[in-house]
Amino acid sequence: MGTKINRRISKAKYLLILVLALTTLSAIAQESQYVVFFTDKDTLAYDLEQPASFLSERAVERRKKQKIDITYADVPVREDYLSELEELGAEVYYTTRWLNGALIEVTAEELETIQSQVFVRGAELVKPGGREGRSKKSGSSYGKSKARFAEEKPLEQLLNMEQNNMLGIDAMHEKGYNGEGLLVAVFDGGFNGVDTVSYFKHIYEEGRMLPGYDFVGNSPNVYRYGQHGTEALSCIGAYKEGVLEAGGYGADFMLCVTEEVSSEYRIEEYNWLFAAEFADSTGADIISTSLGYTTFNASAMNYDYEDLDGETALITKAVNEATKRGIVCVISAGNEGSGRWRYISPPADANNVLSVGAVSRTRDKVSFSSYGPTADGRVKPDVSALGLQTIVVNSAGNVVTSNGTSFAAPLISGFVAGVWQAFPDATNYEIIEKIKLSGDKALTPDNETGYGIPDFNKLMENFLTPVETEKKRFFKVYPNPVENSDLVIEPAEGRFNGMVHVSLYNPEGQLVLQKKVRNYKRASLSLDMDSLSSGIYIMHILSSSLSDTLKIVKF
């Protein structure tokens, strides 16, 4: 993946270089890969009120829940345009609904003809040369290597206990939140061994591994190439009871290969875009990716620090499109912190995502973890997790340690899955904010670890599940509505007997009033509401083993 750039290429200069490249390629190569962009879509062929023909039920439901409109950017590209491209000699590989285009392979002469068509508004060279197939070595089908499914005995403590506890995942699991019901899409360079290693067996046995795709090798077989993706996935979904329990082990998963290991060209950013559209249409809630791009084999494609503005890099644009559709994108910040580049790499510069830095077991930033800020001054990374000697599972089924923000990011992805299960009605933006504000640097974020290390316990204190209107109340609160008098809190039965912790939040989830009393043994507790403006508030009361959440109205 890319690391750094030495200069900024203006758009005009890039176009000039592109023209020169095309001229050269016509002499030395037969075919290259381009993304062709179309002028329009067939708006009469699709009814936005009936999206089942182009989006899965799961994808539609995600949009409905978050009140996200389905637009013509969601409908497929025109089939007649694809047919015309093929008639003009193009090999068509993938299409992009969001950017209204297609990845094709043609000669420079054929491209010139294609660009003259009235339905084509432009083209971009994404990789010189034809589409090279990767190694055809296939990963084993699930269940063939039965010997690998050995069952270890439970241990005195989990192998990944420390990295779990750092995020409060132990408490998250104790409360029953493990990502169940969420779909996590993982994009990487290969997932060798996932279909045979016993730590992933539960996903297949329970039917929670959805079909993925290799966008590099043009194949549904993702179980090959390498183990980087395998190790990343293990941080989210690996599970053996009492041995190793990743944060989101109860989620559904889909795997996509987007990274071409042998070379660096803009095609990899488009592979990511194609995978994101595939995941979106399938209904993914979370995209976890440990990839980033700054430098390519063709220097005209390189990015500069000035491009880290949240909207310039192609892969950042793709992330922004996924975010608009209700997906939480979790992205590694990069490993250039101690190098010449030092900064985060796209798409970690995107707005409204969780870009993740790496810390050690002492909770300090690791030297290699990439820094912020973005070019437009935003704090990055957003949060951090263990990225030094992170416990992972490799393609041979061994539990080992590995370093990098590549593994800090999927730890956060598993955390996101559990948090979203706990707050099922929250939007993706709300989930991101909840997690950032639960960080240990939430009040003083910086460009080394962002908002810090998030914590599930703190998150549950700060942001509470929706108030239930019909349930047994453990506390009486009056008068409600309250005007100029104190608010009185009483146990529904008996007296307070021990610690009392009362928190009041405004509709934006901000803590506005808090009262903690130790060893309290009275019949009631009063809360002064005079300093608060009129409005609706959410109150959380915790005393001994009892807790309650209710709505308070201040006149």
Describe this entry's structure for a reader.
The protein has 555 residues and is α/β, with parallel strands linked by helices. It has three domains: 11-127, Peptidase S8 propeptide/proteinase inhibitor I9 (Alpha-Beta Plaits, 2-Layer Sandwich), CATH 3.30.70; 152-462, Peptidase S8/S53 domain (Rossmann fold); 475-554, Immunoglobulin-like (Sandwich), CATH 2.60.40. It has helices spanning 11-28, 57-65, 79-87, 108-115, 161-167, 169-174, 201-205, 228-237, 267-282, 314-324, 405-422, 428-437, 456-462; strands at 32-38, 91-96, 101-106, 120-127, 183-188, 213-214, 239-240, 244-245, 252-257, 286-289, 328-332, 354-359, 383-386, 390-393, 399-402, 475-478, 487-491, 498-505, 511-520, 525-527, 535-543, 546-554. A hairpin with a 2-residue loop joins strand 21 and strand 22. The relative contact order is 0.10. Residues 1-28, 134-150 and 465-470 have low confidence and may be disordered.
